[in-house]
């Protein structure tokens, strides 16, 4: 294809994208208000098309460029892309268990994490033969309580897996202090928190590894995908090898090492088209984060009048959330149930979701496991009383007004 032909193709795609994206015009009551939705346009489609025309499909130059730019965005030395956030988490703990790492984790060592979690976050610990220890979350932030973390530390405790719940950063001053004082590895689950920060520092840059997801519902996307952000230069070659079948990290640079396997690896790579899309989405991330924050504020402002019955999370001092969604908790005294409210919203075509895996110990998958935990009153409360609605950047003021209006309709039927 010649340059002018490519230019023509790009213009055609731009014209079509303008007409076709977003796929549906919002019609109140008819169009679903999604809990999440990817937002992309001609830039992403053209980048993917251009990438295809290079003839290169596996990870290549664009993937390496994406890794550099994402590391820069997060404020880390390196980043390594993976095929999902779940893989990023699995690899982070696999690497910390490697004998190539000083003072590495050993089978049966304890990792403290939040009981209000996503299953594959917890599974990254279990599948690496480590023992998770679950702690309760705080009612205002939905995040692990540093005081409880400290109380649960034993001589078997070797790591913290900190989860920034639905984009709200944890108290990283306290958690990094605890990790340092007790000589613990610190891994951050930032799968829902791209762009969030604490005291001006982006999440994913505080510990040994930050794990991100680029799944279609998340802050920015490549369809599926993930990344590990790193400041530890020893972890980089190891994780690179672990995600690449165990190949030596220099296998692609040094022909004599092309079939040299130095770790027991997985295959968790992406394809170059994903990186092409990711590079375009990354440029839009700061704008997406701001729009999420604005949408979150508008929705909470609209629903604040119902705070006798509903409550919403707040940010810690120094934290800047990158809200994945608007978590809503129905208070103890509310004269209606969560099911009644969610059903009402569903009938009004407003999507809701429960909080990730809720109290993950209540999931049947973990029934046979003996997992040590603190008492979990807040996590249990959220498990039965909370849900969320979307605040994604594709949500317009018209959609937000509609959501608030529908809550008003529901509440007026319950004496408010
Ligand atoms: C907190 C958290 N951790 C991990 C993951 C896993 O990410 P992925 O779906 O990319 O595997 C998710 C996915 O939504 C998540 O919300």
TrEMBL record:
InterPro entries: DegT/StrS_aminotransferase, PyrdxlP-dep_Trfase, PyrdxlP-dep_Trfase_major, PyrdxlP-dep_Trfase_small. GO terms for molecular function: pyridoxal phosphate binding; transaminase activity. GO terms for biological process: polysaccharide biosynthetic process. It holds the Pfam family DegT_DnrJ_EryC1. Keywords: Aminotransferase, Pyridoxal phosphate, Transferase. PANTHER family: DTDP-4-AMINO-4,6-DIDEOXYGALACTOSE TRANSAMINASE, TRANSAMINASE. Belongs to the DegT/DnrJ/EryC1 family. This is Aminotransferase class I/II-fold pyridoxal phosphate-dependent enzyme.
């Amino acid at each position: 294809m010649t340059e002018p032909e490519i230019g023509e193709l790009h213009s055609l795609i731009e014209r079509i994208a303008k007409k076709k994206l977003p796929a549906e015009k919002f019609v109140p009551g008819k169009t679903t208000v999604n809990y999440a939705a990817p937002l992309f346009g001609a830039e992403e489609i053209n980048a993917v098309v251009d990438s295809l025309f290079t003839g290169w499909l596996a990870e290549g130059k664009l993937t390496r460029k994406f890794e550099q730019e994402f590391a820069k965005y997060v404020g880390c030395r390196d980043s390594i892309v993976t095929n999902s956030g779940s893989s990023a988490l699995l690899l982070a703990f696999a690497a910390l268990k490697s004998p190539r790492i000083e003072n590495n984790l050993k089978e049966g060592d304890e990792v403290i994490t939040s009981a209000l979690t996503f299953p594959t976050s917890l599974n990254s610990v279990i599948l690496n033969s480590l023992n998770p220890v679950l702690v309760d979350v705080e009612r205002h932030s939905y995040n692990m309580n540093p005081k409880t973390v400290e109380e649960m530390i034993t001589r078997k405790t070797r790591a913290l897996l900190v989860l920034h719940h639905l984009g709200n950063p944890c108290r990283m001053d306290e958690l990094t202090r605890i990790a340092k004082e007790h000589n613990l590895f610190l891994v951050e689950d930032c799968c829902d928190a791209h762009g969030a920060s604490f005291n001006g520092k982006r999440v994913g840059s505080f510990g040994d590894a930050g794990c991100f997801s680029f799944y279609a519902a998340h802050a920015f996307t490549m369809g599926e995908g993930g990344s590990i952000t790193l400041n530890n230069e020893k972890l980089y070659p190891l994780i690179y090898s672990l995600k690449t079948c165990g190949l030596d990290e220099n296998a692609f640079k040094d022909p004599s090492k092309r079939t040299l396997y130095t770790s027991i690896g997985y295959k968790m790579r992406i394809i170059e088209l994903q990186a092409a899309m990711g590079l375009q989405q990354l440029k839009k991330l700061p704008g997406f984060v701001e729009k999420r924050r604005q949408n979150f504020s508008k929705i909470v402002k609209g629903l604040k009048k119902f705070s006798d019955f509903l409550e919403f999370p707040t940010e810690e001092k120094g934290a800047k959330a990158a809200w994945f969604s608007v978590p809503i908790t129905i208070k103890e005294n509310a004269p209606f149930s969560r099911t009644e409210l969610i059903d009402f919203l569903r009938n009004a075509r407003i999507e809701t979701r429960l909080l990730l895996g809720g109290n993950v110990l209540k999931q049947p998958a973990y029934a046979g496991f003996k997992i040590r935990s603190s008492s979990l009153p807040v996590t249990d409360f959220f498990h039965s009383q909370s849900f969320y609605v979307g605040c994604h950047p594709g949500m317009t003021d018209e959609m937000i007004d509609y959501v608030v209006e529908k809550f008003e309709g529901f509440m007026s039927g319950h004496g408010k």
